[in-house]
Design brief:
Helix content: 10-25%
Number of helices: 5
Order of helices and strands: EEEEEHHEEHHEEEHEEE
Distance between the termini: 38 Å
Number of strands: 13
Radius of gyration: 22 Å
Largest sheet: 5 strands, antiparallel
Strand order of the largest sheet: 6-7-8-9-10
Strand content: 25-35%
Structural class: alpha+beta
Length: about 240
């Protein structure tokens, strides 16, 4: 029997929840609305008949242990984000042991000197850049053999002439044999969510692609210029509107 935290009286348990004018009820989330737990039954309500205090609770706490994001909740995010088909999204700031492998992989995909990625990833680990909150960040996806199959980063400026449009998602790449499996979308969403939790609701990116980022809710924002001339700059959906 639950006790009221206000007056100590026995509470009436097992009540339900009816949200007025709401179609979806109440969901248990982690970090406000951005990370819903899946696999959980609806929460129950206990009501104190003496003072009117109400308390939400889960009847089956074992469900919580198997729910998506439970391990993030338990270990304060410092784990691999386990997803489908044996793949994992890894946030490098929590797993510095992947920096050497990741910097070599990105350098090989984008033909940019290895030292540039090493320096940026070390800044990520040391949090040296305080001008732009959270920048830089680096994310990779590994397969069941712990090999990198996709990755992306977020930096202050992806070498264009609009430094005010920041931060910039960059270096998004998926190995050819792993394309059309939703990996790019997962990286885009993970980066958005990560920065939303830091209070940054929008990201930008430069690209020559059309009709690719639109499928993930990104929109063409403006034309910017880099060393090769004009290019398209996109803006992400905002978490503030979701």
């Amino acid at each position: 029997m639950r006790k009221c935290i206000r007056c100590g009286a026995d509470m009436v348990e097992g009540c339900g929840i009816n949200v007025k004018h709401g179609a979806y009820g109440i969901k248990i989330t982690w970090s406000e609305k951005y990370r819903p737990f899946s696999g959980l039954a609806a929460p129950k309500v206990a009501v104190c008949p003496k003072c009117g205090e109400i308390s939400l609770y889960l009847e089956d706490t074992e469900q919580l242990k198997s729910a998506v994001y439970y391990r993030d909740f338990k270990n304060n995010k410092n784990i691999k984000d386990v997803t489908t088909a044996g793949t994992h999204i890894i946030n490098l700031r929590s797993f510095p042991e992947y920096v050497d492998k990741a910097s070599l992989w990105f350098s090989g995909k984008w033909r940019i000197p290895l030292s540039a990625y090493e320096e940026s990833m070390q800044e990520c680990l040391a949090n040296k850049n305080n001008e732009i909150l959270g920048v830089p960040q680096w994310y990779i996806i590994t397969d069941e053999n712990d090999e990198i199959i996709a990755g992306a980063g977020v930096i202050a400026n992806d070498f264009h002439d609009r430094p005010d449009l920041t931060p910039n998602l960059c270096a998004l790449f998926v190995e050819e044999k792993h394309r059309k499996q939703g990996l790019a979308g997962r990286l885009l969403e993970y980066a958005r969510r990560d920065f939303a939790e830091m209070g940054i609701s929008r990201l930008y990116l430069v690209t020559d692609h059309t009709n690719f980022y639109e499928r993930y809710g990104w929109e063409f924002f403006t034309t910017v210029h880099d060393e090769d001339g004009p290019t398209r700059l996109y803006i992400s959906p905002s978490f503030e509107n979701e």
